[in-house]
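Running co-folding for 1-O-alpha-D-glucopyranosyl-D-fructose.
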Amino acid sequence: MLTDTKHKWWQSTVFYEIYMASFQDGNGDGIGDFKGLTSRLDYLQDLGVNGLWITPFYPSPKVDNGYDVADYFNVDPDFGSLEDFDHFIEKAHARGIRVIIDVVLNHVSTEHAWFREAVSNPESKYRDYFFFQDEPNGWESFFGGSAWEKEPDGTQVYYHKFAPEQADLNWQNKAVRDDMLRVLKFWLDRGVDGFRLDVINFLSCNGIGEENLHRDSKGRQIHDHDIDQPGIYDCISEICDFVRDYSARRGKESFLVGEVGHEELSKLAPYQRDDLLDVVFNFNLGSMGSFDIGEIHGQLVAMEDQLVGLPTIFFNSHDMARSMSRLCHDNAEQAAALAALTLMAKGVSFLYFGEEIGMPDYIPQSVSEMQDVQAVNHYQLALAEGKSISEAYDKALEECRDKSRLYMQWNDDKFSGFSRSTPWIGETAPNNLPKVEEQINDPDSLWHWYKTLIALRRDNPALNFGNYDILSLEKGLLTFARRRQNKIIHIQINFSDQKHPVNHNPSHEVLASKGLDLGEPDYLLPFGTLITREVQDVC
Ligand code: TEU
Ligand code: CA
């Protein structure tokens, strides 16, 4: 439940995730960067989003596209400089757009000075920043295979939950915790408005303990002891307290959204608390594999029951196949209905760049076109298990996150099909993808529908702060109402492939509609939406 007390800025913010390398190049090298991003602030303002989440931009060898940070206090030369960053923040703020940045606290690149020192000088204090052992235990990496790698030129192995080039930090060590608070302070001082905390429930705050003994139906290890470790809430609350206190002393309110690596609501919900994260990413809803309105409705109801505060509503990110392909099978009407749900349902909406034009997945035709370390790793593991090349490719494609990382389709001559930053996306990127420029010129486009919905969301407090009056599903028609004081916004979305009678009270003002067929009775066409406003008399 949301209590109607003091409101926070992020509760009325529509966020938009920018995958740095693929958004906008500003210097002609084909790699998205801060100069390019700054040049697109007018576009973002026109679309109406007022919060940005930018993926890691720190110096990095980019084994995992920047989630392998080599230096937390700088900008990777591919993305620009600290001055470019400052300029971007200043220009975003001038347009009323807030910016949260992605921080990776669980692990560092093996190119990071701490790790290099830890291996070159085992007596140094940095050895205890990581986990070194003589022998691996049976823990497996989230990218497949053992979570242990032999140290270069040494005799021990070190622990990594992700790629071998991403060494896990020892969060039991106070020096690690203090160093990471310094990182957060550095970026708060540069004006960021909050953080997206990468895999925050994965922090190793209780060391290397018991073996993970169970496997799921797909044969993957269940992470019973390497994540959600005892002490994790204290560890996260130390981070959150620091950010809140430090911001408050500077008269600011920072936003903390946690990537908690779970798809079950019951495992996500405990991390969202006053002294912990403001919100968690609701993967229980957002990362569903195929479209099922019954399941969506069930999750909306469950989030209402189980979450303290607001859920997050999203169906896209840089880690999952795009909703246009995964959920909507290239049906633009269905994408419009999903957009209405994303922006009208109760929760903080997170859009992902390109979804506003319905960008579909990019499908690499061979493993040589894949950059994602997770995909390549699974390809090699499959081959090692004796699978054929085509079976290994299928496995890699299933795991491949490049699908959603294709360059933004602006309609520039230069980079409309692919980005040189993403060399795996080349000849096989299709040419007939939707383009931003075309959609801006077409008032009936998905882009304009997103713009309408975003504006409605921002203009109507009921859509930000209102609780549900109704939240029901009947034969594919999702009906909900959001109330704040005497104003009620009624939303009806027809998720069925049949036309559906719609409740259209003539005394309610129509705020927006799509596929509305007026007659006796009124109908919503398949995937149509009707949004109306009722103002009740105040007695
Ligand atoms: O994602 C975590 C990640 O890879 C998830 O798929 C995780 O395995 C899952 O939530 C477990 O249930 C973050 C970043 O978003 C991703 O791009 C990085 O590769 C990863 O962390 C490592 O930093
Ligand atoms: Ca560039």
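Result summary
Confidence is low (pLDDT under 50) at residues 414-426.
The longest strand covers residues 523-535.
Job closed.
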